[in-house]
Amino acid sequence: MNEERAMIKTIVQTLGAAMLLAGAAASQAAEPAAAPKAPPAATSSGVLNYGEYGRPTTLDPITNNDMIAMRITELVFNGLVGIDNKQQIAPELAESWEMASDGLVYTFRLRKDVRWHARPGEEPRPFTADDVVFTYKIMMHPKTITPLKVRYEFIDEVKKLDSHSVRFTLKRPILNALPKFTFKIIPEFGPTNSAYLARDDAFVQKPIGTGPYQYRETTANGEIVLEANPHYFKGAPKIARFVAKPFADQNIMNQALMYNNIDMSVLVNPRNVPEIQGDKRLRLQPYNALSYSFFGYNVRNPLLADARVRKAFTLAINRSEMLNAFFNNQGAVISGPFAPGSWAYNLDVKPLPYNPGEAEKLLGQAGFKKGSDGIMAKDGKKLVLSLKVPIAQESEATKRVVLAFKNYLQRIGVQANVEFLEWQAWKEAVFLTHDFDIMFASWVFDDSADISSLFHSAEIGAWRNNFGGYSNQEVDSLLVESKLTLDHEKRRTIYRKLHEMLAEENPYTFLWTLTNYAAYHKKVRGVQIHPYKFFSYADTWYIGEAEGKAEAAVKK
Hints:
seven-stranded mixed beta sheet; 556 residues; Dipeptide-binding Protein, domain 3; globular; alpha+beta
């Protein structure tokens, strides 16, 4: 049960499933910056202290399910292939690959110069095909709790051909299959249990990878320390050490940046953007993230099972007003389950307008009437609902959003009792026991736009992404059809229909996508941010020597 208690998910999707954000700011934004000029050749030097909004649950790429962990695993692990700064498939652990003409067999030739991070007192071990086969088997084991299963169910067999060759046989041809092989590889010798990966396995907190940075320690105050991997097959990274520092509040994290206590904030509250823009010591970089925030409903509650009730809640809140008041209008209100900026988003489906009168009318059509206390009721049951929010998201902006939502609902006769929970308790309430009526969170997607784990009825259950128990036979059929089609335009058509249906059904009240910003001191050079993996190019970042010395002098 330990591994079950820790699980969530979110969200993939690591590439493809959805990932739960540990902050209220999610986004859309500008295109990535142009590729930086190559920094001068040098050994690893300097320390980059960066602020995170919260702490990760795990540090391995299989069981992790939040963006904080995803950023760390991007520094520690590699996939067979990667995505370069032009958003093209690039070699990683595989130096080459072949696809059979029928699209059912992929053969990868692996690099022979890759070494695993060394445990203290040990020499680095070589990476081989055995590690690839092991990763897939342990990932797909029934007892391994991971959001990745739904993404990789299309693989029929993984077979070692020789020490540095591996063959994947698919159950069926897959549209754009190659990007799916970006999943991270773990060492066969890493986990204590060779059959499945449990959340209490030492490996999930002390990971061993092949990436540019290796795990060193988690300090008493929760800082995660990563050191440059001197044996990295692409060459030693430029920065000697990355230190992830956790913050419970975005405003405090912003102040830490302003006072030189950290060098980078990975997620800036939009309200802090003007302050950072006015500081000549800092750089502000927008980056594209396919994500959005939402209120999700537990349709196991008969009061919420009627789509008219959920639609009424969406009509009752002024999302544009909230976006402007709480986030300086740095984003866009959305209408459905895909993030704007995604090829899957249906621009023809417009967000429902703010219309409390229509909301009350819909509640009436669903059989609700206001009592003498002003609360809507049906068959003696009042619309008094629990609204649960993770304390890790209890920033000023999040509290304002949640309380505004509560007040909007109150105006139409709905009482929402807000409860802020510790992160783990919130996950258990939402994803394990389903002890909630409404929850608040954010999802982030990769460019696959796969929403199967969120809305297919087969994904209802403990620690599964369809936490609200939403079920619609036609939605299920369309989700299956979208996975089977090899025609990109046909898949787009299917997704447009799904967008239309889910916008009408309102399993979530879809709120907005926010413009994501990272901020960092000018001493950090060569920064380019991956749209949804953030640190993918961090091995080429470097610390400007002059700026670093000057800042150190100021601190003294």
